[in-house]
Design goal:
The chain is built from nine helices and five strands. It is of the alpha/beta class. It has one domain: Vaccinia Virus protein VP39 (Rossmann fold, 3-Layer(aba) Sandwich). The protein has a five-stranded parallel sheet with strand order 3-2-1-4-5. The structure holds S-adenosylmethionine. The site of S-adenosylmethionine has 19 residues, from helix 1 and strand 2.
Length: 310
């Protein structure tokens, strides 16, 4: 809730969802054309609470409805699962469902299907969250760079709060191993929950560089760590609090993802793409030319994410 909430500071994430639309459209079109399902089951994992929570669902339904019109098919019924951790504000999403359904009913072709059933699934996506073979399509955006836990053995991280340029080797290894363990568990669970031939479209923060502590992944956390260290010096927070604080966050490289997908073995990789998004994407169009305002927006975005962790 309020000005500092994720709901009010998720413009950048929405731009990311928009950028990946063609990939999702292709995947959902393939599934629809291959199976012509009467019921189409879709899950959005790490849906959060805010304007983005039903954004992807809306777009996917629009795409399928366009196909139905082209092929003069009746609409399927849509079964939508919105997943996030149990602490997520599912009530706010549920309150927006009525509005969503009104918009939905003006779009659907109709027929025997043409209904939409929305369910909240409060659980970690690093475990099973839905029954076997219950899904056609799984989507997740801007969530999978969060690990299931802070890796073990990262206590001596030299005043850092995540992997950073000055992190010792054992800290880097611990983060990478946690990512490997989590991501392969994620794939294994989804492979059981998807029907054979089902599809998965995942977007996450990553990096181009082989170096896991490169600026592209760690800089933003290094800035926060610098401030927290200053606050220790000023006696505002205790040093042992800072030493014990690490963020469960890992931005894999394309090759690290590829290796994990191949080793886990349940999925064939159709498409892997890296794209860059400027931090300026956090700003509204009217703020783009005002650096102060843009800096404030990026600060608010980081606050919305980091404040609950802190
Ligand atoms: C930055 S938000 C992205 C939300 C939304 N997909 C978007 O694009 O705006 C990341 C979300 O992932 C959720 N998340 C993190 N770890 C998770 C886990 N293990 N299981 C389910 N959700 C998780 C967080 O609670 C948060 O709501």
């Amino acid at each position: 809730m309020g000005e500092a909430s994720y709901a009010n500071n998720s413009l950048l994430q929405q731009k990311v969802i928009s950028l990946t639309k063609p990939i999702r459209d292709e995947a959902i079109t393939c599934i629809y054309k291959e199976r012509l399902p009467q019921s189409l089951a879709i899950a959005d994992l790490g849906c959060s609470s805010g304007p983005n929570s039903l954004f992807t669902t809306c777009e996917l339904i629009e795409t399928v409805e366009t196909l139905c019109r082209e092929k003069t098919h009746e609409s399927p019924e849509y079964i939508i699962f919105l997943n996030d951790l149990p602490g997520n504000d599912f009530n706010s999403i549920f309150k927006s469902v009525e509005y969503f359904k009104q918009k939905f009913s003006s779009q659907v072709v109709g027929g025997v299907g043409g209904q939409c059933y929305i369910t909240g699934v409060p659980s970690s996506f690093y475990g099973r969250i839905l029954p076997t073979s219950s899904l056609h399509f799984v989507h997740s955006s801007y969530s999978l760079h969060w690990l299931s836990q802070v890796p073990k053995g990262v206590e001596k991280n030299k005043g850092n709060i995540c992997m950073a340029r000055t992190s010792p080797l054992n800290v880097r290894e611990a983060y990478y191993h946690q990512f490997q363990k989590d991501f392969s568990m994620f794939l294994k669970c989804r492979a059981t929950e998807l029907i054979k031939g089902g599809r998965l479209v995942l977007t996450l923060m990553g990096r181009n560089s082989c170096d896991p502590s490169s600026n592209e992944s760690c800089y933003i956390w290094e800035l926060l760590a610098e401030t927290l260290n200053d606050m220790v010096l000023e006696g505002i927070i205790k040093e042992d609090k800072l030493v014990s604080f690490n963020i469960p966050f890992y931005t894999p490289s394309p090759s690290e993802l590829k290796v994990e997908i191949e080793n886990e073995g349940s999925f064939t990789l159709n498409h892997l793409e890296v794209f860059e998004v400027s931090w300026k994407a956090a700003c509204g169009d009217e703020e783009l030319n005002d650096n102060n305002n843009c800096g404030y927006r990026v600060g608010q975005l980081m606050r919305a994410v980091a404040e609950p962790l802190l």
